[in-house]
Amino acid sequence: MASIPLTDAQVRELREKYAAGARQVQLADEYGVRQNTVSSLVTGRSRLEAGGPILPGKSRKVTSEEVVAIREAIAAGTPRADISARYGISHQMVSNIASGRAFADVGGPLTSSVPARARPLTVEQVERIRERLAAGDDRAAVAEDFGVSHWTIASVVRGATTGVAETAGEDDEVVQMRRLHSEGVSQTEIARRFGTSQQRVSLIVRGSSHAAHGGPIAEPHRHRLGDDEVRSIREAYAAGTPLAQLAERYDVAAAVLRLVVTGRTYADRPGPITPSTPGTTPSRGR
Fold first, then answer.
1. Could you state, in order of their start, the residue ranges of all structural domains in the chain?
2. What tens digit of pLDDT does each residue of 183-217 get?
């Protein structure tokens, strides 16, 4: 989400609301800015001259006790956005603390740098969320009621999260992903349904992560593109087709396709090469 420039009056109003108890994630949603922007404003790290109450204590370095509490909260499933707002620190710092990249000598349960997701929203839950938002309910309140972050709510609003069908209790998220992939659903589409990244889906369906979970494991080999596919990808990209759309069409990660269209892989294959430097003119391959 691109941050919207705020006037001095809006900055003062935002600071007053925060001082009165509003959460950073709520203010970010209300004013159309990033949570990190709100944090910088309320602690005076930016726009100090705009006026309004400054709470510098929120930007202090977290204590060892807080580090342990943060790690325990994440291990218990508390959304990282909520923790970020609670302690007045950035999402990146929360991730660094959770994974041990920061405060490595402090105790508490460490987790992966990739946030662990709760069971995905069902189609019915997504529909109920949309109905409540259409009725004017506050996004933060809806997020709290459904136990998801405000990022998930925003994903529902954009249509990126559509929900998954109800399944038997033992079928958790990992099993559902693997079953969908074995049925021919692309990794990109699975990522869209579950509101996660294609890279994470790839690790799960190949068994590189969550190895102890059930579900069919995909063959370990990487999909190798043929000459016709390389040409079609490069021609479509040169014509303006987004990489995300091509990734879904060919079931190949967008990062891999970027290497294809710039000629860093399959350099001897046909099709127009798009230079990686912006503003340059694509050159025609063989």
1. 8-59, 118-166, 169-221, 223-286
2. 878 877 787 777 777 777 877 887 767 766 677 87
